[in-house]
Every structure is written in structure tokens, then in C-alpha cells.
């Protein structure tokens, strides 16, 4: 039984990194006319209120809340913030998750496949995406969904693997899912999000990916304070297989800025690494 609800975390520092990297990849892949199959294996509810009573732990204050009104942003962040603004009026009241951010940018030749297993969030996701064409909302396991959806007929795919890691076996499952999907469809662009709660788990994940034989893997991590086992999420990262060639320099511009702005008491840091060539 799943208890994680993304509503409590929407817009936090991890979402800022995740959605900024995601939109950079989407924008690049849409420069080509050919249709894209976009797969979101763990979709959440799609749209979150930042003012509702139960969201009052205000995790968004660690992320979007700190940068929403900032001028002179690095270009990838300006692009991301423009996307968040599409769901808001003047003030920040709603946070669009990956399904909404993506569906706003869907072209007639693209399709979007969403997977959400939590019953209540699945119902919200359906409601939030209602009436959108070529958007398929599934109440199914996203790992199985991914296996069934690659390779796509157009031979172009963008995939987001974004579990909550509430079930610890997810750390193992994401490595297997990425390896299997890459074997079935090597040229897909795959994005995997990870939290740093226990550094040893991420070291293992990186090692598994280094040994997987998958080529073209880059890692982008943003930390708000040093590793501190047992004291919640201190950082998060995006692992990207077959990244657009533009992503590296976009993140060189963005990550230092984010580390300075979102770091707690000057303790922010980032990592930008090539995992495999
Ligand atoms: N991708 C979303 C975004 O960026 O806005 C956030 C997703 S949230 C981190 C993870 C979601 O995955 C939760 O809503 C959880 O209920 C759902 N989930 C957990 N296990 C799943 C599975 N095996 N298949 C599909 N959804 C799952």
C-alpha cells in the first residue's frame, strides 16, 4: 500500500532540479519535427495547490518559492519558471508536476503516457489532464508500462523515471528498468531522478549504471546541505541517458546558481559528472 503523496513535497528543491532538467531535454528533442513518445513512469497527481491546509509544511519554500520572483535567471531556469507561471496568475499558488509541464508542450505529433498507482492521486491526475488529446493516463505499474512502450514506432522517446523510493526495492528496480529499456531501445533519452537520503544507496546505483554497459550517461546533482544520514533528503540528482548535447553547458550555467540560491546557510553544492561515455 502506497502512502507517499507528492502534494507534500511539490515545488521543493528536488522538483526545481528535476523539472528544469526535464524541460531542457524536452525542448531540445522537440526541435525535430518527428513525433515523440513521452513516458512518465511515476506521474503523481499532476497539479498541486501550494496554499491548501495540508500543504502547509511548505517544502516549496526550499525550492520554487525562493526563486519564483528572482530576476536575471540562467536561461534554463527562466524557461522552467515561465512554464510554472502558465499554471499561476500573479502569485505562486499552484505547482505543475511533470504531467502538466509536459502536456502544456505536447505537439500534435507527440504522445504522453502517464502512470500512477496511488488510487487518490490517479483520480486527481485523470481530472487534471481531462480532455487533453494524446495523453494516456494509466493506473498501472510504471516499470511495466515502460517495458511495454519501448521501442516506440517513431523511434523517438523521452522517459522520466521518478519513483518516491518509499519502497526500498525501487533503488534496485530503477537500475534494472533503465538497463532493460536501454537494451530494448538504445537511442531513447531516459531521465532518472534520485534522492540523497542515504549516500551509500546512490553510490551503489552509480556503480550499477557504470557496470551496466549503457553508454552516454551524465549525472547532475544539487545539494542544499552536506550528506546527513537519517536526517531527510539533503540533495537530489538527475541521471540522464543520451542527454541532448546542449544539456551539459546548460547545467554548467544553472547548477552553481541553484546551489548558491537554494543551499541552506551557504552549504549548497552540486555535482556534474559523466558516468559513461
Ligand atoms: N513525476 C512527478 C512529478 O515530477 O510531478 C512526481 C512523482 S512522485 C515523486 C512518485 C509517484 O509515483 C507517487 O505519486 C506514487 O504514488 C507513484 N508510484 C509509486 N510506485 C509506482 C509504480 N510502481 N508505478 C506507478 N506509480 C507509482
From TrEMBL:
UniProt-annotated catalytic positions: 162 (proton acceptor)
InterPro entries, A to Z: RlmJ, SAM-dependent_MTases_sf
EC number: 2.1.1.266
Residues that coordinate or bind S-adenosyl-L-methionine: 19, 42, 98, 116, 141-142, 162
Known partners and oligomeric status: Monomer.
Family: Belongs to the RlmJ family.
Protein name: Ribosomal RNA large subunit methyltransferase J
Lineage: Bacteria, Pseudomonadati, Pseudomonadota, Gammaproteobacteria, Cellvibrionales
Gene: rlmJ
Amino acid at each position: 500500500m502506497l502512502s507517499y503523496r507528492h502534494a507534500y513535497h511539490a515545488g521543493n528543491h528536488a522538483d526545481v532540479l528535476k523539472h528544469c532538467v526535464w524541460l531542457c531535454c524536452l525542448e531540445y528533442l522537440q526541435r525535430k519535427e518527428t513525433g515523440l513518445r513521452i513516458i512518465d513512469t511515476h506521474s503523481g497527481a499532476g497539479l498541486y495547490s501550494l496554499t491548501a491546509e495540508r500543504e502547509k509544511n511548505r517544502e516549496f519554500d526550499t525550492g520554487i518559492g525562493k526563486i519564483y520572483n528572482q530576476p536575471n535567471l540562467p536561461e534554463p531556469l527562466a524557461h522552467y519558471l515561465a512554464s510554472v507561471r502558465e499554471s499561476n496568475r500573479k502569485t505562486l499558488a499552484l505547482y505543475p508536476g511533470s504531467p502538466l509541464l509536459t502536456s502544456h508542450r505536447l505537439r500534435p505529433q507527440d504522445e504522453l503516457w502517464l502512470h500512477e498507482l496511488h488510487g487518490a492521486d490517479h483520480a486527481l491526475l485523470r481530472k487534471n489532464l481531462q480532455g487533453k488529446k494524446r495523453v494516456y493516463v494509466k493506473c498501472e505499474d510504471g516499470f511495466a508500462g515502460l517495458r511495454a512502450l519501448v521501442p516506440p514506432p517513431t523511434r523517438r522517446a523521452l522517459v522520466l523515471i521518478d519513483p518516491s523510493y518509499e519502497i526500498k526495492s525501487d533503488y534496485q528496480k530503477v537500475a534494472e528498468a533503465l538497463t532493460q529499456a536501454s537494451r530494448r531501445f538504445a537511442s531513447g533519452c531516459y531521465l532518472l531522478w534520485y534522492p540523497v537520503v542515504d549516500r551509500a544507496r546512490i553510490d551503489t546505483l552509480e556503480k550499477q549504471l557504470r557496470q551496466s554497459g549503457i553508454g552516454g550517461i551524465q549525472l547532475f546533482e544539487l545539494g542544499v546541505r552536506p550528506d546527513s544520514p537519517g536526517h531527510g533528503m539533503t540533495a537530489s540528482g538527475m541521471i540522464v541517458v543520451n542527454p541532448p548535447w546542449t544539456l551539459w553547458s546548460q547545467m554548467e550555467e544553472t547548477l552553481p546558481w541553484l546551489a548558491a540560491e537554494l543551499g541552506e546557510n551557504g552549504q549548497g553544492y552540486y555535482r556534474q559528472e559523466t558516468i559513461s561515455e
